[in-house]
Design brief:
The protein is α/β, with parallel strands linked by helices. Among the domains are: about 5-45 and about 55-60 and about 105-185 and about 285-360, FAD/NAD(P)-binding domain (3-Layer(bba) Sandwich), CATH 3.50.50.60; about 370-445, no CATH class. The protein has 14 helices and 19 strands. The protein has helices spanning about 15-25, 55-65, 65-70, 105-120, 170-175, 250-260, 270-280, 305, 315-335, 335-365, 375-390, 395-400, 405-425, 435-445; strands at about 5-10, 30, 50-55, 75, 80-85, 90-95, 100-105, 125, 130-135, 140-145, 150-155, 160, 180-195, 210-215, 220-225, 230-240, 280-290, 295, 300. A 7-stranded mixed β-sheet has the order 6-5-14-15-16-13-17. It has a 6-stranded mixed β-sheet with strand order 8-2-1-12-19-18, with helices on both faces. A hairpin with a 4-residue loop joins β10 and β11 (about 150-155). α9 packs antiparallel against α10, α10 runs parallel beside α13 and α13 (about 405-425) runs antiparallel to α14 (about 435-445). The longest helix has about 30 residues, at about 335-365. The protein is globular.
Length: about 450
Amino acid sequence: MTDKHITLIGAGLVGSLTAVFLAKRGFTVDVYERRPDMRKENISAGRSINLALANRGIHPLEKAGLMDDVWPMLTTMKGRMIHDKTGQCHLQPYGQRPEEVIYSVPRADLNKLCMTAAEQHGNVTIHFNHKCNRVDFENNTVELEDTLTNTVFEKPFTRIIGTDGSASSVREAIHERTSSHNFVEPLGHGYKELTIPRGQQNKFQIEEQALHIWPRGGFMVIALPNKDGSFTVTLFMPNEGPVSFSEINNEQKLKDFFAQEFPDALPLLPNLVEEYFENPTGNLATVRCKPWHYQDKAIIIGDAAHAIVPFHGQGMNCGFEDAWELTQQIDQHGDEWIRIFSNTDSQRYTNGNAIADMAIENYIEMRDSVNDPVFRLKKELSFELEKRWPTLFIPRYSMVMFHRLPYSEAQARGKIQQEILSQLVEDKTQVEQVDFKLAEKLIHDKLSEFVFTH
């Protein structure tokens, strides 16, 4: 084993993109992936949830030279289409500039592209059906299991990168030696994947350039468009309780539930019963741990270090940023691996926690607040303040989705801006009633100039 050899655990989105970056820099990479090759076998039903690709994720893909191949996969989403219980809809734009959109992308297609791109460099080998059981830092070996033959064997490593998801074995090995700050926080809510098929002449049955939300307080349905005219639909609700996956456990309860809560969605879901009972119920949790690295031997990035709930559309984008930060540290520090790993850890740790917090807040916003008049007034006002003071006031959602400043800075600025908005809309029902002289004073007193990252 040499310093130019990397062992990478996990060939998901973050692992595959990391392998591309490493391969381009001359590393020999062995990737061990517990699943079969999704390019040869169908992805398991109900686990193909579409993802939202935003500026943060686009930047690393551009740096990897992949965006020309990614663009054809993408479907533009200009905003949230809110569906109320009467069937009425209204669009809440994500931003107010033409380029302020996000993109729906099929997880599996993007993952396949990254895998193939990594292998094409000739110095990346992906070993499928290989589960990582244990990492031994004393002997610098990793215990692997070939799940097709049930053969268990050891491989030596020089450097190991864990991109093996929320149940990361690399994370567990790091924290056996370093700290007990390693938490998996269940949300108490799960998800179920459903489908709105394409309509006649392969056309979309509902607005194609939107992320559709049916917000219902403690639960919700969302739908993301696909290139073929269909929508990938996800039902989010509690695991236990009066409205929950445990309670809605037969066909009649399911039909009654959708007829009452999502009457306009029900006719669009011809396979509701089959998909609800056949597709798995996914779990939602947040991973928080510290540190992310062990000496100069190992680091974890992506969901292995900071799995988050999916309600800000940032899990993949954040993981891609991790991969790019690690790559930049390699470019800057050569073979000083302790510095590479510790710098990546310190740069990304606070940002991982920040987006984890904001993702949970966004769940509450999506399932409840979007229909609240005060929330809608604040959103309208935030756009107006951005128009008047574009270098000082940027809505938090825009900072997260359309800019690349660190998540922790977006979170901190967002808190200040929320205080300003709350003060300005007190006892108001329309933007025209807002005191803009007071707004100008508050903004100049409390906010610094925004640093735009390109």
